[in-house]
């Protein structure tokens, strides 16, 4: 089978190389999947560059989440059988025609979704759900400020925020991209290149945003500290800007807000039962048609580096998916 693999860590993601690989039979508790689609996530890029907290052994194939068909089941697997169409949490391995995955990390594709949609929703919507519900305690009627709202995890946060009954202010550095978010239900949109602190305060009658969802970091985080409400929750999702910011601790003290880290996958690994409930919720929403991931482009496996570059160069809107 073909697999796009990393043999050396590099800032230049073009180091990925297509290999012919012989996959071993699935082990205890594993299934062999014929992958049909795998979505691109920013950590895929960071792993190639050696900058992500999870550092797999070389060589490896990026690809955190995919969808496909069960080809073979390993010893001890009773919940799946060949022919089942599933979505799979992988961490790595998705940039390949086939992969061995833990059966426990696979579940049926929600009714009404195709392989591309199924590959595009899990990580983004699980991140948004854990951030806004579990960590951020977002309440109906509160104001949610979503940064990076035109990316995959940002659009998911806009959707989840609206599902929870919040008033959503979405930001991006592109007016054109923000039009797509506005069409998906954001109440207000702001271009961060023009500054946003004063506008957020104006839109909230001086209070500021109750919950701020920040996958960007850098200057965006710095300005967010200036427009968060009393008892606000500033959710740290990531640092796509490239700069990890810091906050003078007198600011949370004086303004009474919390800075909260969000790692949805790690949350589930540390508390498997809670993680299972979180996944069941987003799967139910998907089956009910409440989740509709926005996929702006698809690429064949051999063009996966081009797909990654769309994210790296901030050209993507929503999700980008690789197909096999």
From TrEMBL:
Domain (Enoyl reductase (ER)) ranges: 11-322
A GO term, aspect molecular function: oxidoreductase activity
Domain of life per record: Bacteria
Protein name (Swiss-Prot/TrEMBL): Alcohol dehydrogenase
Natural source organism: Tepidicaulis marinus
Taxonomic classification: Bacteria, Pseudomonadati, Pseudomonadota, Alphaproteobacteria, Hyphomicrobiales
């Amino acid at each position: 089978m073909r697999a796009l693999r990393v043999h050396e860590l590099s800032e230049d993601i073009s180091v990925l190389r297509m290999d012919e690989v012989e996959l071993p039979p699935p082990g205890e508790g594993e299934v062999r999947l014929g992958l049909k689609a795998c979505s691109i996530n920013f950590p895929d890029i960071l792993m190639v560059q050696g900058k992500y907290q999870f550092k797999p052994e070389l060589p490896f194939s990026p690809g955190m989440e995919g969808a496909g068909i069960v080809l073979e089941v390993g010893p001890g697997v009773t919940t799946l059988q060949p022919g089942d169409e599933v979505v799979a949490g992988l961490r790595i391995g998705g940039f390949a025609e086939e992969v061995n995955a833990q059966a426990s990390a696979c579940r049926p594709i929600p009714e009404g979704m195709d392989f591309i949609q199924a590959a595009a929703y899990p990580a983004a919507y699980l991140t948004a759900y854990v951030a806004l519900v579990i960590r951020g305690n977002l309440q109906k009627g509160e104001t949610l400020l979503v940064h990076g709202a035109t990316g995959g995890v940002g659009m998911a946060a806009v959707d989840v925020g609206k599902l929870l009954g919040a008033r959503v202010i979405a930001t991006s550095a592109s007016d054109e991209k923000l039009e797509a978010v506005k069409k998906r239900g954001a109440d207000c949109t702001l271009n961060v290149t023009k500054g946003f602190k004063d506008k957020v305060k104006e839109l909230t009658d001086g209070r500021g945003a109750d919950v701020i969802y920040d996958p960007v970091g850098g200057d965006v985080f710095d300005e967010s500290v200036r427009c968060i409400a009393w008892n606000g929750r500033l959710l740290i999702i990531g640092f796509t800007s490239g700069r990890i910011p810091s906050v003078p601790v007198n600011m949370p003290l004086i303004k009474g807000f919390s800075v909260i880290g969000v790692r949805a996958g790690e949350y589930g690994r540390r508390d498997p039962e809670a993680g299972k409930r979180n996944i069941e919720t987003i799967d139910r929403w998907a089956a009910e048609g409440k989740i509709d991931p926005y996929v702006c482009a698809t690429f064949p496996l051999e063009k996966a580096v081009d797909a990654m570059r769309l994210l790296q160069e901030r050209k993507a809107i929503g999700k980008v998916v690789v197909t096999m």
